[in-house]
């Protein structure tokens, strides 16, 4: 299997990619679906091994510039496990499977009872408990920040960051002044993996899965895109009504048990949750509302300046360049996302991170990049959290 990158120069070339996608199985990495293609846009997609020569011929024929980002996907999949931490146990510098993460949630809470507690906010379609960690020193009327990881099953660097964030918080509390202040003054709700069933499936069956594992009535195709399943312009722009598509919006908003559990929890805690952060990959972007409309949020100037400053913080460490802005214009329109939904619930600080990289590895970022990725992202998250603390509403 190969991953190609093309940049169609005009609508004719966009049409070539579209017809390619309708004639064979094409897995779009960026953008999420064929419907979002437009001229001058960077398009990354994966094709099966038996089709890769055909695809190359077609691209050459159409005169389209292209390059092969990943020449042998299987080799890249094997190479992602390059961590020095070769342990069967949990490690913050390698990708952990779900069982290991679940055990870790219990352990980290047991080891840090004055800072961390664990609860279950629901269960997945396949019956797995959705563990939520609450972090912070106990206090009265504390405001909170909600952060989730692992919406899309194949974005493994995302859950790795949620684990890293928790580790850093407990390790630096009492040592790092910013983190100490944050945990004394705020609570953090951390949902390490949203789409647990999908995540498990990427470890056991198909590393490239994006969606949930729920059955769809009247279709043999499995799963919904959980980040198209929220009631925010639901199933309009950039989402599909076809259950076989990777951006399928589901049969109704919150049709997925996972998205409903998350939304229910936030609704129940709306009076205290003042910021919402959701972690995805890849593209190196820091996005804020809206994605379901080109309309700008009412506090656009403020969100834009926070995103600018947070991106600066992030870049300062390893010179990783981030782009920031409203989702619809910074990448492409996409309806039904959790960030837009949270914002429309009245959570005015709502951000989506798209972590490393920009396509060299895409969804199969090697483990050796977990540490630097998490270190730099942490700086941006701490900046945003500190800003929220200073601007409580």
Automatic annotation (TrEMBL):
Gene Ontology annotations for the cellular component aspect, listed alphabetically: cytoplasmic vesicle; extracellular space
Pfam family for this entry, one: Propep_M14
Location in the cell: Secreted; Zymogen granule lumen
Database matches in CDD domains: M14_CPB (cd03871)
InterPro entries cross-referenced by the UniProt entry: CARBOXYPEPT_ZN_1 (IPR057246), CARBOXYPEPT_ZN_2 (IPR057247), CPB_M14_CPD (IPR034253), M14A-like_propep (IPR036990), M14A_act_pep (IPR003146), Peptidase_M14 (IPR000834)
Family per similarity comment: Belongs to the peptidase M14 family.
Name of the molecule in the record: Carboxypeptidase B
